[in-house]
Design a protein that fits this description.
By secondary structure, this protein is of the alpha+beta class. The chain folds into 3 domains: 131 residues, no CATH class; 79 residues, 2-Layer Sandwich (Gyrase A, domain 2); 137 residues, no CATH class. It has a 6-stranded antiparallel beta barrel with strand order 3-4-5-10-7-6. Strands 2-11-13-12 form a 4-stranded antiparallel beta sheet, covered by helices on one side. A hairpin with a 4-residue loop joins β15 and β16. α1 packs across α5. The longest helix has 15 residues. The two termini are 31 Å apart. The basal body constitutes a major portion of the flagellar organelle and consists of four rings (L,P,S, and M) mounted on a central rod.
Length: 368
């Protein structure tokens, strides 16, 4: 087994070469401090459903908002009893993008909060959308597009997708702008999406080489400050245009990500394994009860007795014998070697966990 594993690893090592580092634009690695979207949320009513709305007895808040809307439209419903099944209370969510201007349109997501079965074919009534400061920044209205299907008969029902949620493309119109004067900034801060000292230093170096001065300064692993007065740009926007398309080679931490549910293993090219020995096998314990009824002989005195019978068996499935992984092997080589031996993904994940616990896997190990 040791020879088979070493041969498999040597064949794979000859075929696998480390991938060359790829240059990535700065705009794909950082966010500009202050240039961000804002979350919006609202509470509204979807009408026009084909009998799939809220049961108003189980969702009294639906009746309340419907009464409020009708009263605003001049319809007095106080003391009236109405139980329509074509309305549903919903939460409406959206993201206000940076630099959104009044009159612009954004997409919204509509989700039922009552016991409605489906929002398919419904229309969202005018719903104000608030931000965290309590101010209204957009108003949503339109026909809900749901990707789910809900059908039922007298004795069966089938549901595909999520019919109780949907979207309205360009369903909200911006009514208020976020107060942020980008043109008055004297400096910019670039926030790295994945903080790393080496990547931040490379961003600083490439920007300073581009402008021919010390315009960029690395503050920490996640922040690079740019002095706009030293870039020669006429405005902050022009400075961003000149710098965001510069390319660098980002540094990534060695990381292994495994998904136990699907058996997926994703690894970086820099993952290394120290010299370690691996032995793996599966034991299955099977116990069966087969009681036997013993009866007395004909015309004899006695009682029927239940005699227990138990069958116990231990099954050892074939696994990997004691195999040694050479020092400095990459994880991709080890995985390919295990694949060549026919190890299934579930057992492979268990082996990687054990190698990490032994301190031989030099990478961040993430289990999903």
């Amino acid at each position: 087994m040791i020879l088979r594993l070493l041969v498999a690893l040597s064949l794979v090592a000859a075929a696998i070469q480390p991938a060359a580092a790829q240059s990535v634009r700065i705009k794909d690695l950082v966010e500009v401090d202050g240039v961000r979207s804002n979350d919006l949320v609202g509470y509204g009513l979807v009408v026009g459903l084909n009998g799939t709305g809220d049961g108003l007895r189980n969702a009294p808040f639906t009746e309340e908002i419907m009464s409020n809307i009708l009263e605003r439209l001049g319809v007095n419903v106080q003391g009236e009893q109405f139980r329509p099944r074509n309305v549903a209370a919903v939460f409406v969510t959206a993201q206000l993008p940076p630099f959104a201007r009044a009159g612009g349109q954004i997409d919204v997501t509509v989700s039922a909060i009552g016991d409605a079965n489906s929002l398919l074919g419904g229309t969202l009534i005018m719903t104000p959308l608030n931000a965290a400061d309590g101010q209204i920044y957009a108003v949503a209205q339109g026909t809900v597009i749901s990707g789910g299907v809900d059908a039922e008969g007298d004795a069966a029902r089938i549901v595909q997708g999520v019919p109780t949620a949907g979207v309205i493309p360009s369903g909200a119109r911006v009514e208020r702008e976020v107060e942020f004067d980008f043109t008055q900034l004297s400096s910019l801060r670039l926030a790295l999406r994945e903080p790393d000292f080496t990547t931040a230093a490379r961003i600083e170096d490439v920007i300073n080489r581009s402008v021919g001065g010390r315009a960029a300064t690395m503050l920490d692993a996640g922040t690079v400050r740019i002095d706009l007065s030293k870039t020669g740009a006429t405005s902050p926007a022009r400075a961003i245009v000149a710098l965001e398309n510069l390319a660098i080679e980002p540094e990534r931490r060695a990381r292994v990500v495994v998904d136990q549910r699907s058996g997926t293993i994703v690894m970086g090219a820099d993952v290394r394994i120290s010299r370690v020995a691996v032995s793996q096998g599966n034991l299955t314990l099977r116990i069966e009860e087969a009681p036997v009824a013993v009866q007395p002989n004909p015309f004899a005195e006695g009682e029927t007795v239940i005699v227990p019978r138990t069958e116990a068996e231990i099954i050892e499935e074939p696994g990997i014998g004691l195999a040694e992984v050479p020092s400095g092997a990459t994880l991709s080589e080890v995985i390919a070697g295990l694949n060549a031996l026919g190890v299934n993904p579930r057992d492979m994940i268990d082996i990687l966990k054990s190698i990490k616990a032994a301190g031989a896997l030099h990478a961040e190990f993430v289990v999903m």
